[in-house]
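We both want to read discrete structure tokens more fluently, so let's practise on a single case. Would you write everything just below, so we can both look at the same thing?
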Amino acid sequence: MIYTVTLNPSLDRIIEVEELMYDDVNEVLEEKRYPRGKGIDASRVIKKLGGQSIALGLIGGYNGLEMESRLVNEGILCDFTEIRDETRTNVIINQKRKKLQTLLSSHGPSVSDVESADFFRKIQGIPMNSFVIISGGIPVGMNDSFYAQLITTLKGKHVRILLDADGEPFRAGVDAGPYLIKPNIHEFGRLVKKSVNEIDEIVEYSKPYENIVEYIVVSMGARGVVGISGRGNFHVAPPKVKVRSSTGSGDSLLAGIAFVLHAGGTFEDALAQGVACGTATALNPGNDLCDREGIDFIKKDVIIKKI
């Protein structure tokens, strides 16, 4: 089974207006409410690929209940841990006439020591040989070493952890030796504390981590991904497309990789599937993720090069 971990999810309110008029009444043309989180989006894409996952994380209050019910209605299996504070809500205002988007991002909840321990106990119940995607930020109240603690605990059960994070939680998590890491090129630069722009720089700066992490995947937007492993290094590039939104592309990439590796596929095939998923998501507007038809359409034109 594949599990996804989202410690700081949100219930997003997406509001569309013709044009935002200040100091005046604005008519709302359309409003949607949408559960968001990097691991949650990975679960969605795994489902679109025909797989199944269980979404783990922290939810609280009415927002958390609504978020869970909406995910269940999507067919996503959930096993969230309840916390006292309310799950955060982001407000996205789309101006139809000006084609502008404004994001109002709220602070996330504060998590107590007891709540952290509750979640940690749930993690300890993950069966042996599972795959676990850990992605996104850590909420207030949880230590930056929390991901590293999860990885250390799960590795003892032969669980394969795929980590996608940033900053100190990511650095500590990498040192704990997950199965795979997936930073974008900017996050990778912060990890290695260097300016990184080119493929050969990624290969060079990955060397100190090759004995710690089995697979390193660095995403580069329209330039595709670089995959580093003991069984070969690859540059996988998508076809040129018109990007409508990059939201969720990285999570879709990781979901595609996890889906193939979990099924016993090769690293090369996993990278190709991941790039197809991430690019297919970029073709869609707003929060819309990839679909199977778009994935298959993109995948046939993905270019794989051994480096």
